[in-house]
Design brief:
Distance between the termini: 24 Å
Number of domains: 2
Strand order of the largest sheet: 2-6-7-1-5-4-3
Largest sheet: 7 strands, antiparallel
Helix content: 40-55%
Order of helices and strands: EHHHHHEEEEEEEEEHHHEHEEHHEEEH
Structural class: alpha+beta
Radius of gyration: 26 Å
Shape: globular
Number of strands: 16
Number of helices: 12
């Protein structure tokens, strides 16, 4: 199995300038390759330029401009060209499927923030020994950079990437390792229901409160964005204001990830089987369609867009998709089983008599069955129904 590790780098001032120059040069290579593909298609009878042709030109490009391109790793430049080739492959795939195409765009040096080396030892070297207190990564053209390795790397390092986030630099490793030993069997199964009032409710009747990281940071973000809007474009003050806004967003993202990791780890350690709703989050975040007013040409009737925007903001702040991805990955590593079930009517069906109707849920939190008068928290009822559906689906699957 492949596992990723992300560590903070501690480059010197000179190394920071070299890292920034490396990103600029790879960005210019990316943009030049994109321009070549555009020009060939537009002016040479719709000729398609492939990755192999552009990769074959790298040797001449490095010899022509050794200061800009010759000092960096050949394999990292090939990875940048592959990155563009993947962007075009995704573009054509979306065109064929009828989705929004999203033609590959030129990148500014501020938005180009990652360089990858496809193989450890080819232009880069991860130097890590178990008993060495100082860990370093060696990059061609830059040298040895100190790395804050907060946990050991298990397995053989396959790829190395360097990423810039604000003023910080990170090294990202992918390591191939054998599948770890599964956790001891607990004999427990659980169903979970994702929500907004509570982050999740489980079939045991417990709740995980919603931390609302984005809502808590909204006031600071609003003040920082207002300060940014008052700065003159291109000024030093604006650059500092941009860094402030980006730093606040990164802090919210890190807190959300930390909460998702800790919650998922608790579920995986205590249960062998975890059933959850098969949520279509992208569809849930769609804005309501406009309602034209037949009596006023060009006018529209209220469609609840403001309320839906607030709901969408709360769903995005909860981070359901990130949590479910982390839960699935941790369960696979621990030898646990997860099951996604259809969420329809899970909060409307009575777990005792099976009566299903919208009247069973008079409020957001209250469930009162109109058939047998069973009462419970609506989210707990949904989690119980999710667990039952997951167990039934697992038994129905062929061995």
């Amino acid at each position: 199995m492949i596992r990723a590790y992300k560590f903070l780098m501690r480059p010197t001032v000179g190394q920071q300038g070299a890292l920034a120059g490396m990103l600029r040069d790879h960005c210019s290579l990316y943009n030049a390759a994109l321009q070549e593909r555009r020009d060939a298609y537009r002016h040479v009878s719709k000729t398609m330029v492939r990755y192999g042709e552009q990769s074959a030109q790298l040797k001449d490009i490095r010899a022509f401009d050794p200061e800009c391109h010759g000092r960096w790793s050949f394999s990292s430049q090939q990875a940048t060209l592959r990155r563009l080739d993947k962007a075009f492959a995704a573009f054509f795939r979306r065109v064929k499927s009828g989705d929004k195409p999203g033609y590959p765009r030129f990148r500014s040096d501020k938005r180009f923030d990652t360089v990858e080396w496809p193989k450890d030892g080819d232009g880069c070297r991860w130097d890590s020994t178990p008993h060495d207190p100082v860990t370093r990564v060696r990059l061609q053209g830059i040298g040895h950079i100190k790395v804050h390795r907060h946990r050991p790397v298990a397995g053989n390092v396959k790829t190395v990437s360097v990423k810039r986030e604000g003023r910080r630099w990170y090294v990202i490793l992918t390591a191939e390792q054998t599948r770890p030993e599964p956790l001891p069997v607990t004999g427990n199964a659980i169903g979970i229901d994702m929500g907004i009032a509570n982050f999740l409710a489980d079939s045991d009747g417990d709740f995980v409160p919603n931390p609302c990281h984005g809502r808590k940071a909204a006031a600071k973000l609003e003040a920082a964005q207002q300060a940014l809007s008052r700065c003159k474009r291109g000024s030093k003050r604006r650059r500092k204001a941009v860094e402030t806004v980006a730093g606040l967003h990164r802090k919210v993202r890190r807190r959300r990830l930390d909460h998702a990791h800790k919650t998922a780890l608790g579920l995986v350690r205590g249960h062998d089987f975890i059933a959850h709703e098969d949520l279509r989050i992208r569809n849930m975040l769609r804005a309501p369609a406009p309602r034209p007013d037949p009596e006023r040409p060009g006018g529209f009737l209220p469609n609840g867009a403001a309320a839906k925007a607030g709901l969408n903001r709360s769903i995005s702040d909860a981070g359901w998709g990130v949590f479910l991805t982390i839960l699935t990955a941790k369960a696979a590593c621990a030898g646990r089983e997860t099951m996604a079930v259809d969420p329809r009517n899970t909060s409307r069906q009575c777990p005792q008599c099976g009566h299903t109707t919208a009247e069973n849920r008079p409020t957001q939190a209250v469930f009162r069955c109109t058939g047998c008068d069973y009462q419970a928290h609506a989210d707990t009822v949904a989690a119980v129904n999710v667990l039952r559906a997951g167990l039934a689906r697992r038994e129905a699957q062929p061995a």
